[in-house]
């Protein structure tokens, strides 16, 4: 069974259960019916996300890709996210995104943040 089938079944089971419960309680008020329906969908989506997470873990094990965890401390209360890389030099632009590594993408993001900051300063924001 493929990933798509597992995800679809993960969604279908809780939503079908919610539909069955709604059929058994035809005289429930509209808010209760909506609550049951939404709950079924949320449980289905949660199960689908779990299936996807299991598949991603399996793919990582097969390809031996290490999981990278963020080690930087969270932002201070007064520190803006755009100000984190304020002192770093913007990297030159890379026109082709194909084959770009994480370092190149990080440099492009830094350069984009610097450009955005410059535009905001020009506007006086």
Written description of the protein model:
The chain folds into two domains: 3-63; 81-123, no CATH class. The protein is 62% helix and 0% strand. The chain is built from three helices and no strands. Helix 1 runs antiparallel to helix 2 (30-63). The longest helix is centred in the middle third of the chain and has 34 residues, at 30-63. The model has no long low-confidence stretch (mean pLDDT 78).
Q: What is the 3D form?
A: flat
Low-confidence stretches: none
In total, how many domains does the architecture comprise? 2
Question: How many H/I helices?
Answer: 3
Distance between the termini: 53 Å
| Proportion in helices | 55-70%
Compute the CA-based radius of gyration: 23 Å
Secondary-structure element series: HHH
Short description:
The protein has 125 residues and is mostly helical. The protein has helices at residues 3-24, 30-63, 102-123. The protein has 2 domains: 3-63; 81-123, no CATH class.
Descriptive key words:
mainly alpha; 125 residues; flat; 2 domains; 3 helices
What's the helix and strand layout?
Blueprint: H1 3-24, H2 30-63, H3 102-123
Helix pairs in contact: 1-2
């Amino acid at each position: 069974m493929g990933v798509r089938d597992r995800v679809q079944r993960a969604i279908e089971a809780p939503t079908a259960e919610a539909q069955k419960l709604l059929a058994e309680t035809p005289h429930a008020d509209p808010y209760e019916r909506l609550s049951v329906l939404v709950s079924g969908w949320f449980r289905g989506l949660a199960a689908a996300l779990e299936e996807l997470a299991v598949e991603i873990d399996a793919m990582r094990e097969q390809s031996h890709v290490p999981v990278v965890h963020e080690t930087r401390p969270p932002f201070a209360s007064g520190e803006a996210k755009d100000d984190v890389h304020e002192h770093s030099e913007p990297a030159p632009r890379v026109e082709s995104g194909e084959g770009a590594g994480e370092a190149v993408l990080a440099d492009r993001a830094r350069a984009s943040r610097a450009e955005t900051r410059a535009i905001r300063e020009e506007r006086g924001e």
